[in-house]
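Please review this one:
***
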Amino acid sequence: TPLYSSAASDVYKRQAKTHRNQVVEAKVKLGRCYVQLGDMKKARDTFFNVMMEYPENMHAPEVSFYVGYS
């Protein structure tokens, strides 16, 4: 059973990472929508939230740009 326990743990970690990436993607898309709508306060707040909660995500350069831009 230790093998099954280890496998289950690995699957859980992969799912959590996938979920985390999906959350980051959704929040970045939301921020972009706010930019397109001209609501820079909501855009800044959304991008700032991503920057603080997920500082090492693949969108970090874009997020930092929009935080400074808005």
User: Anything to note?
Assistant: The chain has a mean pLDDT of 85. Helices lie at 2-37, 40-53, 60-69. The CA atoms of residues 26 and 32 lie 10 Å apart. The radius of gyration is 16 Å.
